[in-house]
Design a protein that fits this description.
alpha+beta; Outer membrane efflux proteins (OEP); four-stranded antiparallel β-sheet; about 450 residues
Length: about 450
């Protein structure tokens, strides 16, 4: 298959701005993702790793191309040579020389295999980087949805506390005129105190949920836009588990990377076995040298040579055989890791396929649950008015209603998370999924970070 890296913004190759300002009314999902692409250190490290590992192809290619070297020397000499007794002539002269050598590998099978292996290493790096890019999409979407989920939990807690507060006021008024017992007041007071604690905890959770955005974008994001409730919740298409598994086996980037590791390990065995083979290199050299000094001592020489050099390994103390065995074990390791990755991909694909079908049914059931809880609360309140239900029944019915509302919102968010993860497993997740989901953002409804205070 042909691997395709996601098209990243051109700012990856430019100097990044020192600060990025998000809109005051709240950042949407696309804006946060775009900033994460530029500023997420985890993706930045993955990109640098990919670029560095891709260089192995150029390095391996250099091993089969010509090699040219130049070398030169120069020296000044001082010489005293007795000629006639009592006289010592003195000479000062310079010696210099240079040499150019061109070497071309003729038969080096190990280097050829290394060049072929480097392509597998680069392909594995590309697949891994594509997987890292998909992982960023999942991390951004998950962090964003977690904020919205914590906000819905906070909204449900606030609504419950407000309802309990109104209930407490009504019970207190009824108690003042002698219509209810003190136990109803105490029950309502306890429920109000408990709901207040729930609000405090929900505020803390909502505030903390914004923290991952700092790691992703490098900026303090204190407000995001909510999602509307009309985004589609559909079963997987096609409704065929085996089709999703087959697609994952063909296109999952982690699996593609593991396959390239196996191919590289297979070529490593050939490289190791090449240690038993002879090597042949062609060499052409030219040298020029001048030696100073007068008379007999001065000289000038130009040398040209062409040669074939052969090296036949005879015995290396068993080192080559040991390297071959080591390569065999590493191939076995790569094959086992491939098998593990494949089984994990199949397992997770089946789990997420089932989870999404469950999510679709859960969302529908949670929506019906809200209606049922509201009807139950209305009936319980009526019963309390006529004396057939007590205050505890009313309070429990209120709790069930607000819990149902939160569970409905949570089920919708879980559906999106599972859908993104399933697409990631089958290699289909792309930035377009972020931008499509961003189309359901409510521009007029922001979720602002709560700063919990001591009460």
């Amino acid at each position: 298959m042909t691997l395709k890296l996601f098209k990243l913004p051109a700012l990856y190759t430019m100097v990044l701005p020192l600060a990025v300002c998000f809109p005051a009314m709240g950042a949407n999902l696309s804006e946060i993702y775009d900033q994460a692409v530029k500023n997420d250190p985890q993706l930045g490290a993955a990109k640098a790793q990919y670029m560095s590992r891709a260089e192995v192809v150029n390095q391996a290619r250099a091993g089969i191309l010509p090699f040219v070297s130049l070398a030169g020397t120069t020296s000044d000499e001082y010489r005293q040579t007795p000629v006639v007794p009592g006289t010592i002539p003195v000479e000062n002269f310079n010696n210099h020389a240079w040499q150019a050598v061109l070497s071309q590998p003729i038969f080096r099978l190990d280097r050829w295999y290394q060049f072929q292996q480097s392509k597998n290493v680069a392909a594995q790096a590309m697949a891994q980087f594509a997987s890292d890019q998909q992982d960023l999409i999942v991390r951004v979407a998950t962090s964003y949805l977690n904020i919205l989920e914590r906000q819905d939990a906070l909204s449900a807690s606030n609504a419950e506390r407000d309802a309990v507060s109104r209930q407490l006021e009504q019970v207190q008024q009824r108690f003042d005129v002698g219509l209810v017992a003190i136990t109803d007041v105490l029950e309502s007071t306890a429920a109000f105190d408990s709901s207040t604690v729930n609000v405090i905890e929900a505020e803390g959770a909502q505030s903390v949920s914004f923290e991952p955005l700092l790691r992703l974008t490098g900026e303090n994001v204190n407000s995001v836009l909510a999602l509307s409730s009309d985004f589609p919740v559909r079963a997987p298409d096609p409704m065929d588990e085996d089709a999703w598994v087959q697609r994952a086996l063909e296109h999952n980037f982690s699996l593609v990377a593991a396959k390239e590791v196996v191919k590289a390990a297979e070529r490593q065995i050939k490289i190791s076995r090449s240690g038993h083979l002879p090597t042949i290199d062609a060499q052409v050299s030219y040298s020029h040298s001048i030696s100073g000094g007068g008379g007999f001592f001065g000289s000038k020489a130009d040398n040209r040579s062409m040669a074939l050099q052969m090296n036949i390994p005879v015995y290396s103390g068993g080192g080559t055989r040991s390297v071959v065995r080591e390569s065999g074990y590493k191939l076995e390791e790569a094959q086992k890791n491939l098998d593990l990755t494949q089984r994990t991909v199949v397992e997770n694909t089946k789990i997420l396929y089932t989870a999404i079908n469950t999510d679709v049914a859960r969302v529908s059931a949670r929506l019906r649950g809200i209606e049922s809880s509201q009807s139950a609360l209305d009936a319980t309140q009526t019963g309390y008015e006529v004396g057939t239900r007590n205050i505890v029944d009313v309070l429990l019915a209120q709790q069930r209603l607000y819990l149902s509302q939160f569970q409905y919102a949570s089920a919708r968010y879980q559906y999106i998370k599972d859908t993104f993860q399933l697409k990631q497993l089958v290699g289909a997740l792309s930035p377009e999924d972020i931008y499509d989901l961003n189309g359901f953002v409510q521009a007029d409804k922001a979720v602002t970070r709560i700063r919990p205070t001591t009460r």
